[in-house]
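FORM 7B: Structural annotation worksheet

SECTION A. Query
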Amino acid sequence: MNDDQAAPRRNLTKDTLDLYANAHKWLVIPIIIILVAFTPLYFATFTSEPWGYHMHAMSAIAWYLLMITQPYLATHGRLKDHRKWGMIGMLIAGAVVASALTITPTNVYFGQIGGFPPVFPAAFFYGLVFTETLAIIGFAVSVVMAIIKSRVPDEHATWMLGTVFFGFMPAWLRLSMFPAFAFDIEISTTSALMVSIPIFVAVILTVGYKLGKLMHPMILASTAVTILMISTSYLGGLGWYQEFVTDLMKPMVPWP
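SECTION B. Predicted structure
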């Protein structure tokens, strides 16, 4: 056994190796959901979408592909490759955060033009400015904590999983409205979120329980942010809030 193969055995306990041995298989599910959720709202109109959307979509997809390959490399004796791709991953994570922040003001723009009723009313887009910003912050904090905890494999893996939860939330919000597109059903965003968000919270808590980290800061934070997303349209419908985010984002986007 060479040094590269032996390194994981020195730094990872057998329990940790066993716990994350199949993580790469489970992490295929989020990227499939992302591709499905964004098909009617992005891929179907790919050629007409702005450059910022392409940057965010491609960097996010690259990140989720990385999340599939990294646990596989780490648990199959390829720690050197894991570290190499981890360094590249920092650039990808930066692109995910930066591109997300640059397109956030467009939610206010969509709110200003009245949204896309009946599926996505103006209030929904206004509310996304807050809830998606929380998700971006959660993603960024998870990346930073994963770097800080890089020498503690179990903690490193937990925080990296946090990037999946926080980064997945925008896709999950859109997936909740997918039946409206697929079956031409009129459904409010609030109603869809009332059903989809508890399901996602259950997934987060189940993963936390299986990992023995139900009270871990990442599990608690991702659960709290996800629950807050139920109030996206309610928050976006508040007059004072609309005025605040409009004034805040006004220099960043062209207004109608």
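SECTION C. Observations
The two ends are 65 Å apart (CA to CA). The chain has a mean pLDDT of 86.

SECTION D. Sign-off
Analyst initials: ____
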